[in-house]
Design a protein that fits this description.
Layout (H helix, E strand, L loop, with lengths): L1 E5 L12 H10 L5 E5 L6 H11 L4 E5 L4 H16 L5 E4 L1 H5 L1 H5 L6 E3 L4 H11 L11 E4 L5 E3 L26 E3 L2 E7 L2 E4 L8 H5 L2 E4 L2 H15 L3 E4 L8 H11 L5 E6 L1 H4 L4 H9 L2 E9 L3 H7 L5 H14 L2 E8 L5 H18 L4 E6 L23 H4 L2 H7 L11 H17 L10 H17 L6 H10 L10
Parallel strand pairs: 1-2, 1-3, 3-4, 4-5, 9-12, 12-13, 13-14, 14-15, 15-16
Antiparallel strand pairs: 5-6, 6-7, 8-9, 10-11
Helix pairs in contact: 1-6, 2-3, 8-9, 9-11, 13-14, 14-17, 17-18, 18-19
């Protein structure tokens, strides 16, 4: 038996279908005996895994791991599994081992790390464990040799979603994952592509997947969504694609196909691409049920965007602020503030730019992040390679200071003055209070009114210093934090 483990990553109210382990399950379905254990649903995943190990001959425990809370949860369970059932091989896959393979293998309880796309790598790893091939022959695999030295095999070329079977939804209690959101009462998730073809130098996706993006066919996307609607009564969906819209022709075909499903949905896109879409395509996107689009605006400074190799301009962001308002779609603009080359200037210009966006489209949702470096296949953005040393094991990554780094609570960036950091954080609090996110479906009307009233004068007079009353009000109302929680 193969065990696929999805460690807990979110609060119960935010849990969604674990697409990563479902993708692995899809290639095992019909050819291997396997079980999925999801820590977001199972209150005792360690107990469940131990019970399965005792009842079956388990050949491999596969764990899907994102940096942050999921990594810490996965670490704790795997450490116990190794101590209590040391004969079970453990492999980590997903974003964390893809960008930190050395730190992953430094854990004594992890035997293998899968980098990038894992479906074929998993099947070949099973063959190697059964003596049918060598570990060195498996692309995308990092492992320990007989002497304990780390071996990083060559990268695995990515395949598009159409190369693999559908997710076997029937292997999970789907009703537990279709949770209420701003978009509907039963929100599903879907990934219609993998990877990203753009050159943004600050993004960790390249370290995990390289610079390519492969889409599934519109017909397959429609069929999967129709299945979720017909079989499980899904009424809304969150698309996890890095870029849901690339080719306008592809977008128009997909919109025409999914419009009859009457779904309300969220996706990610680029301002440069969508700013060139016709008005007819924008209306087709609206008719197909799109309610919100996440855009990586990143900076209010064109010089900083050029440094990032983002490939967009501030003018394109302003165009999409206007066009989404005309189309009746809420834009969600994300900013990475604190360019290492000149963090004070970048911060000053970006905060002014956000105010400009709000004048054009007050409904714009704003996400503000500190620039947080991730390893690259080359030098890190901002030439900060000599200014930061990453942890060398999952245990170190689980320490509070590095968890704060991962969650962008406090990156402790040496190039960022404390005064600048406080300005960014305080501005974020004021903006989030002046316009409480529409994604929080639990916040009472009086709570929203309270936040707006308390923050109005601060925003009007640009007074962001020490917004203690807003921090307390947000805690009291338990305002949702979109950048740290799923929809």
């Amino acid at each position: 038996m193969i065990l696929l483990f999805h460690p807990r990553a979110v609060k119960p109210r935010s849990r969604r279908l674990p697409l990563a382990v479902l993708a692995l399950a899809a290639v095992l379905e019909g050819r291997e005996e396997y079980e999925i254990v999801d820590g977001n649903v199972d209150d005792d995943p360690l107990g469940t895994l131990l019970s399965l190990i005792d009842q079956h001959r388990v050949e491999l425990l596969g764990v899907s791991v994102m940096p942050g809370p999921q990594m810490a949860a996965g670490m704790e369970v795997c450490r116990e599994i190794r101590k209590l059932r040391p004969h079970v091989p453990i492999v980590w896959g997903g974003y964390f081992p893809s960008i930190y393979p050395e730190a992953t293998l430094n854990a004594k309880y992890i035997d293998f790390a899968v980098r990038g796309q894992g479906e074929d790598t998993l099947l070949e790893l099973l063959e190697a464990l059964r003596g049918q091939r060598t570990f060195d022959s498996i692309l995308g695999l990092s492992h320990k040799d007989q002497f304990g030295f780390h071996r990083n095999n060559a990268e695995r070329p990515m395949k598009g979603p159409d190369a693999f079977p559908w997710s076997p939804f029937h292997r999970l209690p789907v009703e537990k994952y279709l949770r209420p959101s701003f978009f509907g009462k039963r929100t599903a998730v879907h990934h219609a592509s993998i990877g990203c073809p753009f050159n943004c130098s600050f993004c960790g996706v390249h370290a995990a997947y390289g610079r390519t993006e492969k889409f599934e066919s519109p017909a397959r996307t429609e069929a999967i969504l129709r299945h979720l609607v017909d079989r499980y009564d899904a009424d809304s969906v969150q698309f996890y694609d890095m870029n849901f819209f690339l080719s306008e022709d592809h977008a128009r075909e997909l919109m025409d196909r999914i419009a009859p499903l009457k779904l309300r949905w969220w996706c990610e896109a680029r301002v440069d691409i969508m700013s060139r879409y016709s008005d007819e395509t924008m209306q087709a996107i609206r008719r197909a049920g799109c309610k919100m689009i996440f855009f990586g605006a990143e900076s209010g400074s064109d010089w900083a965007l050029k440094e990032m190799q983002k490939g967009i301009t501030t003018e394109q962001t302003l165009i999409m602020a206007r066009r989404t308002r005309e189309a009746g779609i809420i834009p969600e603009f994300s900013f990475v503030v604190g360019n290492p080359k000149d963090p004070e200037r970048d911060t000053r210009e970006t905060l002014a730019f956000i105010r400009k966006i709000k004048r054009i489209n007050p409904d714009s949702e704003i996400i503000i992040q500190h620039y947080t470096p991730t390893p690259q296949r080359g030098s890190m953005y901002g030439d900060v390679d000599d200014k930061i040393s990453f942890p060398t094991s999952p245990g170190e990554w689980a320490e509070k200071k590095w968890m704060d780094f991962t969650l962008r609570i406090d990156t402790r960036a040496p190039w960022m003055k404390d005064k600048t950091k406080r300005l960014i954080d305080n501005f974020e609090i004021v903006v989030a209070s002046r316009w409480p996110t529409v994604q929080d479906i639990r916040a009472p009307r009086w709570g929203r009114y309270l936040l707006q009233t308390l923050s109005a004068w601060r925003y009007a007079f640009r007074f962001y210093t020490a917004p203690h009353e807003l921090v307390l009000a947000q805690r009291f109302i338990d305002l949702r934090k979109p950048k740290r929680e799923s929809l």
